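EI: anyone free to look at a 224-residue chain?
SC: sure, send it
EI:
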Amino acid sequence: LNPKMVKEQEKTETVKNPVSAYSDKAFWVFFIAMMIFGFVFLQYFSTIPLYYRDAHFLSETKIGLLMAMNGLVIAILEMPLVKYLEGTKLTKTALMIYGAILTALSLLVLNLSSWSGILIIGMSLMTIGEMITFPFSNTFSMQRAKRGHQGQYMAMYSVSFSIAHIFGHKLGADLIDSYGFEFTWYMFTGLMFVGVGFLYWLKLILKKENTNESKSSHLALNKS
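SC: here you go
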């Protein structure tokens, strides 16, 4: 577990008049964005290996090495990258947007060249996108959960990826079977940019929330 995330959990307090996750508009937008991200991300563990084999004729050993590269890079670089990004002025929502864009580009580049080296570029983009999106989306969920019914918030976050697991693999396989790899990668790239749109919408909602909270605090100070 990320130590910072553990600390976030330890700071959890009982909230008076807790907010239901089901009535939290911002979290529903986040939920849809994460579900879309899950649909696209999971292709790397279902249809992408088929693409490596059938379109680039890679052996199982080479496919395994490409997949192992993802795990190795994450093991070495994720924590330093997250620590660095935490020190920037970027919001968690902005970071999730950048991570989602990189994930979208990781599929788009596969259609740009038949050169096998493009597979390494695609895997690298996806890995960086994953390292950015998952830690900050997790932290966002935990911090948002402090508004009220924390179990609801964290359950919804998990369910977004569960839905992607249930339908994402089959959707990718069906698209490839009907329309081929190239069309499928364009479709998932487009879908991911829809997810980026939802994350940008989330960013606007949170900005409005912060503005309203600042106004409320200012009015309260004036009354006192």
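EI: The chain is about 80% helix and 0% strand.
SC: 👍
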